[in-house]
Amino acid sequence: MVCLTTKNDTKLVSEALKVLGKENLALIIHGSSFPSTIGEDTGFGTFNSEAGHELIDYASGIFNAIQLGPAGKTKCKDSSPYTGTIFSGNPLFIDLKQLTEKKWDCILSDETFNNIVISNPKQNQGRTAYSYIINAQNEALKEAWGNFKKKEKGGILGSHLMKEFEHFKKENSFWLENDSLYEALSIENGGDYWYSWKNDTDKRLLNPKNDEEKKIFASRIEDIKKKYEDEIEFYKFCQFVLEKQNEETKKFALSKGIKMIADRQVAFSDRDAWAYQSLFLDGWYLGCPPDYFSKDGQAWGFPVMDPEKMFNADGTLGEGGILMKHLYKKMFQENPGGVRIDHIVGLIDPWVYKAGKKPMCEEGAGRLYSSPEHPELSKYAIARKEDLDWTLEADKEKRVKSLSDEQITLYGRLIEKIVIAAAKECGLDKNAIVCEDLGTLTNPVDAVMKKYGLQGMRLTQFVVPEKPEHPYRCKNITENVWNMVGTHDNNPIAKWAESMINTHEGYLHAKNLVEDLFAEADNKDDIIVRLTNDKEYLTFVKLTEIFASKAKNVQIFFTDFFQIKETYNTPGTSGDQNWSLRLPNNYQDALEPIDLQAILKAAIIARGSEFASKHKSLLEKLG
Questions:
Q1: Are 486 and 560 in contact (CB under 8 A)?
Q2: Rounded to 10 degrees, what is the CA torsion of 119, 122, 123, 125?
Q3: Do 180 and 56 fall into the same domain?
Q4: Range of 167's domain?
Q5: What does DSSP assign to residue 73?
Q6: pLDDT at 5 over 60
């Protein structure tokens, strides 16, 4: 049985991490999963609340970073953060409690706040109540907006707040005008899904085809802005409040030695697809080719940026490239810990499919930059026909067999000229970029990652035990990566371990773990037996593995750190279970974190007797 403690000695943990060469230890927890103060649970977590700050403080003794999920505005009927907006933040992350306090001139009544808490159907259940809070939060913010205006007109509102609001609107007008206009049109058309709007003009309002349409559309925009002036200002107000609270949280986290890492999803939201539709490749969507998990591939339905709009003929940024640069600069400015890029393949060598078709080769799908033989995609190809292995289908990762340095640079120009450039302009470097490269990588993606020295991920739960050289196996994990046992899409490691007990696959994992972590042990067979029938011990050793590896960076999902056995998200499924798991409000009393001291001690010992002997004093202190 794993020995658990309610408290890890932070000084010893810090010393052990340094000895093991770990530069970063990040806790992965999406914003909605943050706990609430008991008696203040509105139904959705936020890092901006008092409880959110308490968790940051709690984590600061052990972690030096927190990896958040995407923070964009989500759909009314879809809680997935991976379809959120690229610029607007999610108003659900506004801490309503603060609006009842003096620093916000009490623009929200205590009565309204308390009623929201009392009516929360998931009160103290460790779950979000998305369909409830998305409406309740909006009504509360409308009240706050109404009082904000009244106090400003009456001269009661602190003058600094109105000045800050006006400055915010001016500084962020390049995206705020579009997003707030969409909000008005959603009201006008009875829903926030623009594809179903009956007014065809509204569908293309920012994308006229000729001068005549420009005049007509401009008149329509003016009419909408007049008709929904207050709703548009309300939208901007919510974004202002959110940014102001976010900035306070960032400063608090930095004061505690915690860097907040953002998450940039590969998707563009409906709101963004509407605003920038002229920049997307007409009739094509981003997805994944058929694989073990999906025989027909994954049809994500996300728009694909038109390569000809990304870069001009001379290599400078086109309109689409400028948009992406704005996006990443905003993210790096707001998140000094950096940005995790979800599905890096989608930026370097995306798999695209035709509208109305499946993402399969036989239905016209292909890699946008690696299909020189494709009748429609060939004009975007970087790989040439002679670079392909024609014995492999277009969806196979090794199909591009050879690339010149010039071609690798072309594949990586979005990374170099937009992502890395944006980081540098914000005072950061390439190490502020975390690349989600889990799963199968194409040769072009692998080449770009190596050329720019980008930090990828290694997920040990997904190691293929039959393959000795598998990159997720401990002995093969290199320094310049982020190592973890699982992310938001995996079973908690304890649940995974339970599924491995007394199975042949579990035996194969156990055998590899013993070879990599117990190389000098005299009782290897006994350890293998224990690993195959003791789920707690297997969990302990799998956690030890990520610290024993050479990886400089480690991430732990909150379910693994707090030993929660529920799964956060199950890919390919939908429903309220996904994205709804939270830390319980009484987590410090109700949950026992992993015994990190014992895990780090085991990781030091796993490095070998010579290494352990060198750090004998520390091992004794670790217990």
A1: yes
A2: 170
A3: yes
A4: 21-264
A5: P
A6: no
